[in-house]
Amino acid sequence: MFSSCMSLRGNTSLILPIGFGYLPEKVLLNIFQYFDETELRTTIIPVCQQWRTVAEHPSLWNTLKFQGISISTSVICLKIRQFNTAETIIIKEIKEPLIVLRQICRYAQNLVRISLRHCHEVVEDSLRHLIVSCKVLKELDLKGTKFKSLIFCVELAFCQSLSSVNFSDNPYLTISHITSIIMNCRKLNGFHISTFKPINRIYLIDADIYFLTSHTANSLQYLSLDCSNLGNGSFSSILQCKNLQYLCLNFAYNFEGCDFQSLWKTLRKLKTLKVRFGHQISDVNIKNLFEQGKDSLEKLEVIDFTGCSKISNFGIKAIAKSCSNLKQLILRNCKNIFSIDDILKKCSNLEMLNIAFCTNLNVYTIFELKTLRILFISDEKKLKYFVDCLKNKNKNLKLKICDSEFNKSFRNI
Questions:
Q1: Is the dihedral of CA 204, 207, 210, 212 positive or negative?
Q2: With contact defined as beta carbons under 8 Å apart, do 370 and 347 qualify?
Q3: What's the distance, Cα to Cα, between the start and end of the chain in Å?
Q4: Residue-by-residue DSSP string for 52-68
Q5: At what angle do helices 124-133 and 97-107 cross, to 10 degrees?
Q6: Closest Cα to residue 116, out of 106, 127, 107, 129?
Q7: What is the DSSP string of 153-193?
Q8: What are the pLDDT digits (tens) for 33-92?
Q9: Is 221 left (phi over 0), alpha (psi -120 to 50) or beta?
Q10: Which of 39, 181, 190, 311 has the fewest CB atoms within 10 Å, i.e. the most exposed one?
């Protein structure tokens, strides 16, 4: 768009460019700071070369994300060098994690959070170099990435700012390593081992959880545990962590309903509650928890009852009545649920819903939920008409197909 102006000194017409495409770089930079990294990449950068140049200014990129073996290692390294002021780097399933780690140690020394998930096995020396180079590191997430530790878990003591670790699904991790982490990370407020299947077959027991909670009860805010071999003593210890905001109890086979329904008495700050495969939790326990603890659990935004086979419509009504702020609800593999109408009516902020393998559920009432952004289902062929209708009703809805009842693998439609 152009505008012509007459010069005061004569008849010469000056053509002055106007419009968003001709804004000064400083103005564009000020505007682009209100967009996150995904919006910059998908919406801003493709517009024109000038916008691309400004949108790739390092100050706008606080978080870098790389996922998949199709991404070139050289591209990942280039971006790490280019956006070396980023505080968060999230990496998943890449080809050459050791090369990327070396690049991070060299150029991203102000890193605060790193997530290196489900990558090929890394050597201990690379991780030792990481915690020495990134002196302000607060969160270290290595879920699904194997590594053997001789002294790394002890040397975490030198990472003085470290407050959260996730070493889930590493078969080389042992009880001794966990003990070292607890003893050496004095500022720990987040501890995550949602899957623990060590090669030596020495599993977590109640005494280990008592040791964990006795050292972190006052500071712990985020906790994920593999509860496969844990009993009531562990659950009683966990309930003493009064500052918990996030609690994930995976494979909670032995978590008795009487303990579950009383967690509101001490865990009054919970925003996320995940109890997976809690086969002893019944509708009565759900009702008692959410009715008696309604005021204590009003902050709950995420509920995950994957595989809790005894939950039915009765429990769903109790959740809907008490959790008006709910944003994410995961009911995967809850086969006794026939309707979630109460959730749809009363949880007006619900953004994500997982009803995969809820084989008896009437799905068509979901059409009425306008706020929904992500929906997980299973058996795409049987629900083809339902999927087509959803796409027409809500263009912004992301549909994902779960492939297994027992793991989180899924694919996008």
A1: negative
A2: no
A3: 40
A4: HHHHT-GGG-SEEEEES
A5: 20
A6: 127
A7: HHHGGG-TT--EEE-TT-TT--HHHHHHHHHH-TT--EEEE
A8: 778 877 887 888 888 878 888 888 777 778 899 999 999 999 999 999 988 889 999 999
A9: alpha
A10: 39
